[in-house]
Amino acid sequence: MSSDFNAQIKKLLKENRQEAERLIYEHFINKVYALILRSVGNPNVADDLSQEVFIKIFKKISSFNWHSSLSTWIYTITVNTVRDYFRRQKTYRKFLSSWLKKSKVVETQTPEKSMFKNYTENMLNQAIQKLPDSLKEIVLLYYVTNLSIKEIAKVLGMKDSTVKSRLKTARQKLFEMLKDKLN
């Protein structure tokens, strides 16, 4: 997200809060929903939690300090909302377990390519589920929401070097788990 968008939202919040909220919602709803859906694996729960996230955003936007990016702040609220959900459900171990369940894009491909793609996704998903939660979380934020290392560090409240190290560890573990299966 660009600093131009941040500046536009900051200005609009002073002039037309409703329009600012509409733009925030339209800009972030798909990524927030995707992040939540891949975390909880249930579309109905993802809908509810997405609504909860945006309610929190709109209640707290006036206290946002603008020292960090709006997207980082929104993803922090999203991750914390999902964590709260799992704490309430006492199923934190399932956190991020189905993040690879992507909505299928209509493609023209051969049945063989489709079968190999499904096989590869299933193998990767199984491998990711075997990762510790601390590594799964970083993989999700990096590859699904396309956050930078610095943004992930802010969202999770850790050092950049810790995020880099965990991402590297996750990649190595995934490679080790998959190298013989995908040759």
Coarse shape: globular
Count the E strands: 0
Radius of gyration: 18 Å
- Average residue-wise pLDDT: 81
CATH homology-level superfamily of the largest domain: RNA polymerase sigma factor, region 2, helix turn helix motif
Proportion of residues in β-strands: under 5%
Q: H/E order of the elements?
A: HHHHHHHH
- Provide the CATH top-level class of the largest domain: Mainly Alpha
Outline of the structure:
By secondary structure, the chain is mostly helical. The protein has helices at residues 3-15, 17-40, 43-60, 70-89, 111-130, 133-143, 149-156, 160-178. It folds into 2 domains: 1-95, RNA polymerase sigma factor, region 2, helix turn helix motif (Rna Polymerase Sigma Factor, Chain: A), CATH 1.10.1740; 99-183, Orthogonal Bundle (Arc Repressor Mutant, subunit A).
Protein architecture, described:
This protein has about 180 residues and is an all-alpha fold. It has two domains: about 1-95, RNA polymerase sigma factor, region 2, helix turn helix motif (Rna Polymerase Sigma Factor, Chain: A); about 100-183, Winged helix-like DNA-binding domain superfamily/Winged helix DNA-binding domain (Arc Repressor Mutant, subunit A, Orthogonal Bundle), CATH 1.10.10. It contains eight helices and no strands. The protein has helices spanning about 5-15, 15-40, 45-60, 70-90, 110-130, 135-145, 150-155, 160-180. It is globular, with a radius of gyration of 18 Å.
